[in-house]
Amino acid sequence: MTVSQIYCHSRNTRIIKAISGKLKRDNNLDYEPNQIIVSNGAKQSLFNLFQAVIDDGDEVIIPAPYWVTYPELVVYSGGVPVIIDTDEKSGFKITPEQLKNAITPNTKMLILTSPSNPTGCVYSKEELVEISKVLKGTDILVASDEMYEKLVFGTNFVSTASISDDMFQRTITINGLSKSVAMTGWRFGYLASPNKELIAAMDKLQSQSTSNVNSITQKAAIIALNGEVDDEIEQMRKAFEGRANKAVELLNSIDGISVLKPQGAFYLFVNIKDVSDNSIEFCKELLKETGVAVVPGVGFGSEGYFRFSFATNMTTIQDGIRRIKKFVEKG
């Protein structure tokens, strides 16, 4: 029986070493082996985290627009989502004042996503420093979802935990390979925290549910984590940036809608407030009449927008936007 056909350890030494090396090389973060856990996708990492730390009534601050899973997992774990609304004026990023006003004695965690799904916003080092000042002196944890870190445009990615020792101690870094090396269906995510007890608790939970990531994925992941495909990732990043620039240009030429240029990921969060106050109906009619599928902004916690993915070829992007233009301008 070969290794790929048998159960393998959920804490594969080579995988943990590769993750540790990646976090040090790319993010200047130092983690010991027992401060890292590997899961079946970053979504499971988040599930394990919320189940391990959130008690009934705990409040979790979530900036909107948000990835759809965050509030659902918080509620499932007994917590209370506290939504902070953002818009184009702030680049879809929370301000220190908003964060300060949202904190209560029941606040357990802040979720940060950079780069963001669905907006493509990226928090700068300076912005993260200001957030860290608000959190200093509290026991609030930070769940930092950094899944799209390799896909940034015209800016530098900064890992939240790298800001200061205080932020390192409170931050749980979540990442994976679905976006950086397009391994979505392979299901490989990981989480790092200096809190060894927290990692051990999540490991116990995972051992009773899914156990290890499949061995084939583990072997493939080592190559990606060791930086052996970084040149290919950069080619992909450049292609996404070119698509983003063209899509922004074309969408902003349509009367009644507008979109900010993203700093990362592969989505545009398109403002349709001047043409519709119901993003679900807008997206349903758009799909029915043109065959173009976009996601209603209300699903991400922000009405009056839709999410447009440019994770496809340029021809399809241009044709899709041509159909959107015709749909919007017909009234």
UniProtKB/TrEMBL annotation:
> InterPro entries under this entry?
Aminotransferase_I/II_large (IPR004839), AspAT/PAT-like (IPR050596), PyrdxlP-dep_Trfase (IPR015424), PyrdxlP-dep_Trfase_major (IPR015421), PyrdxlP-dep_Trfase_small (IPR015422)
- Tell me, what is an example of a GO biological process annotation in this record? amino acid metabolic process
Kindly state which keywords UniProt assigns to this record, in alphabetical order. Answer: Aminotransferase, Pyridoxal phosphate, Transferase
Per the UniProt entry, the Enzyme Commission number(s) are 2.6.1.1
Domain Aminotransferase class I/classII large, by residue range, is: 14-324
GO MF, one annotated term: L-aspartate:2-oxoglutarate aminotransferase activity
* Named cofactor requirement(s): pyridoxal 5'-phosphate
Read off the SUPFAM superfamilies from this record: PLP-dependent transferases
What PANTHER family does the record tag this protein with? ASPARTATE AMINOTRANSFERASE (PTHR46383)
Query: So what family is this one in?
Result: Belongs to the class-I pyridoxal-phosphate-dependent aminotransferase family.
Name of the protein in its database record = Aspartate aminotransferase
Q: Which organism is it from?
A: sediment metagenome
